[in-house]
Design a protein that fits this description.
Layout lengths: L1 H30 L1 E8 L10 H15 L5 E8 L4 H14 L4 E4 L3 H14 L2 E4 L16 E3 L4 H14 L4 E7 L2 H16 L3 E8 L8 H9 L4 E5 L3 H12 L8 E4 L4 H7 L1 H4 L3 E4 L7 H14 L6 H20 L1 H6 L1 H10 L2 E3 L3 E5 L5 E2 L2 E6 L12 E7 L1 H4 L14
Parallel strand pairs: 1-2, 1-3, 3-4, 4-5, 6-7, 6-8, 8-9
Antiparallel strand pairs: 10-14, 11-12, 12-13, 14-15
Length: about 400
């Protein structure tokens, strides 16, 4: 009996230790895992510009980064283009789910809110599908990077080119939130600098309408040569379709799509979209490297169009993980600002955007490309929609560093 009792006591003493092993193992695994949260529009106006293709591109970057001594996990969520919904999701991710990076963000109002939350929690926010140039201006933080494009770049490339082509009087149809306001503001400035005039603007609900007829009639009545669409996604597609139905282009009015993407052209079709000009910082058929990236992601996305937002998710994820590998997982999880600082110190290079860099204000630098949509007879096959008109070099494409008002910039 004494032997049995001693055996039972030994077993009881060992049980807590054995039970604790899975907990220690789980904690160790979590400590060695970087978690990426893709927070975007999965169901609304910007779904085709982000959505499942953004998820696929982010996963491809994680896969191609490979195993370098730590684990990488990804979660995703739909913020419905509502800042309050986005903040609630991101706060839970940061506080309860150990998410280290929130990526994509889409709507400018969402990005501005998440940027502040990332600063508060000392995490990392990377905006890859966001337009407002304020992210690297008055609203810059040491925890946020702005990838792909912004309103200044779009305004300079598309707005200036349209005025030079004779479109010297403008009327804006503008999405009524931070992105639309910033795009109208920046484009109007370049129109005036080029010698043009702005005759007025109409603010459209966002989200909240698919009928733009009254706004288009206001634009027509202004007598402007150019109607500038300071919107994106299905709003842009609907505006262009309805303008065509009203015969505005037949009356000699030029339509300027200030933020249009390849999925928009795909949705419109070349018969409707032909002749439109737009600016993107990525095109799948631009060079050998962009074609290589596109061919690698194509099996994961089916018959979907790839645009600069999607490429940005791939590019930003890859560079972020390189920085984590450089400074170590423990430091990266403890100090988001340290990761961003390391990302700024390292040159960027990938198949989507080529070589580039990140400025001290958080602006990712690369060239901007002005494209014209091809006529149907010019297209050689699926997604062959653009012809290149001009290239703005990386150091000229974005707002000068000392003009944004970012507090991180040393004078």
């Amino acid at each position: 009996m004494a032997i049995e009792r001693r055996a039972l006591l030994k077993a009881a003493a060992a049980a807590p230790a054995l039970g604790a092993l899975p907990g220690r193992s789980a904690r160790a695994q979590a400590a060695n895992t970087i978690k990426i949260g893709l927070l975007t529009d999965l169901s609304g106006t910007y779904r085709d510009l982000n959505g499942p293709v953004s998820i696929a591109c982010t996963r491809l970057a994680i896969q191609e980064f490979g195993s370098r001594g730590f684990n990488v996990e990804m979660v995703s969520a739909d913020h419905q283009n509502k800042p309050d919904v986005a903040v609630n999701i991101a706060r839970q991710w940061f506080d309860r789910e150990s998410v280290d990076l929130v990526l994509n963000l889409a709507a400018s109002s969402v990005a501005l809110a998440i940027s502040e939350l990332a600063r508060e929690k000392n995490k990392v926010a990377i905006a890859t599908s966001t337009a407002t140039s304020d992210l690297t201006g008055r609203a810059c933080t040491p925890n946020t990077i702005h990838w792909v494009f912004d309103t200044y770049m779009l305004a300079k490339s598309t707005g200036s080119a349209t005025v030079r082509a004779g479109g010297d009087t403008w009327y804006f149809v503008t999405a009524d939130y931070a992105f639309g306001h910033a795009l109208e503001r920046d484009t109007a400035e370049f129109v005036r600098k080029a010698g043009g005039r702005v005759l007025g603007s109409a603010r459209t609900p966002f989200p909240g309408t698919t009928d733009f007829s009254s706004f288009l009639l206001q634009a027509q009545a202004s007598g402007a040569k150019v109607i500038g669409f300071a919107n994106a996604g299905t709003d842009t597609v609907n505006c262009i379709k309805q303008a065509a139905e009203f015969g505005l282009t037949r009356r000699g009015i030029k339509l300027a799509s200030l933020l249009m993407f390849l999925p928009d052209v795909h949705s419109l079709g070349l018969n409707t979209a032909q002749g439109l000009i737009c600016t993107e910082s990525f095109y799948w058929d631009l060079n050998d490297r962009t074609r290589a990236f596109s061919s690698r992601v194509r099996p994961h996305i089916g018959n979907a169009a790839i645009c600069m937002n999607h490429a940005g998710d791939y590019s930003a994820t890859l560079h972020y993980l390189k920085a984590v590998a450089d400074i170590g997982v423990a430091t990266a999880k403890a100090d988001g600002a340290a990761v961003v600082a390391r990302m700024k110190a390292m040159p960027t290079d990938d198949d989507a955007f080529g070589a580039g860099r990140i400025r001290e204000d958080g602006r990712k630098i690369h060239p901007a490309y002005l494209f014209e949509v091809k006529k149907p007879e010019e297209s050689r096959g699926p997604f062959d929609y653009y012809k290149l008109l001009q290239t703005t070099p990386a150091e000229e494409a974005f707002r000068p560093l000392n003009e944004g008002g970012c507090s991180l910039v040393r004078s």
